[in-house]
Amino acid sequence: MVKSWLQNLLNYYDVNIAIPSREDILDTLGNKNYFKDLEELLSYIDLSGNSRIPNYRPASDMLYLKSLCILGWYGFSQEEIVSLLIADLKQFEGGYFIKRNDTLIPLGYNEYQVLKSFSLTDCCQGYPTGKLVYYKDTHYLFRPVLKSDNANKDSTTVLSIKTLIKKFNNNNPRNINISFVSLRKNRVFTEIYNDKADIGLTEKVAKHFGSDANLTINLKKEYTSWVKSVKEI
After folding, report:
1. Which residues pair with 85 in a beta bridge?
2. What is the C-alpha separation between 190 and 84, in angstroms, rounded?
């Protein structure tokens, strides 16, 4: 419908510009905002750190952004993230978890280690300057930066999270942006891709997203674009 409006407007002003198809737009977005999996996303953060920060240390630098992406990947909202406590990280019976309300969300070993290392660190090299950034000592997982506007609080703010992501997107070397709202969808795409059940793609999309018929059609198109533009390149 929007494309039709635009085409009428261009025709009225006699402007000859080709309007891209939905599939073309999805392919473009897929190349810039999505990743093959969480491991590729975290590796890309390290690649960006290495390209900008002298003496970059993957084990201790950019843990804030990595932790943020891990939690977004598992469906945490930014409002939930700023309320997380260090004590919400759990390890027992050989498993690794993070508490979300009254539910324990299972994590992979590497993901847990990133979050745990972040909970223990008191400073890091800021991106992209490399300048040391110190965190306030509080019981929250995402602590405010000392000497910042939020230093009087015990937890960081949603605005600080958005600012951090924007700063990364404005300075990463390959113009592959992190879209926080797309992280959960990216994870579900990987789950669909790895789903070996003997059912059709439409059924898999509906099952993993819990979507109705109309939404499933759109999600299926986005998933197909992701497979072609990102996953199988």
Report:
1. 140
2. 26
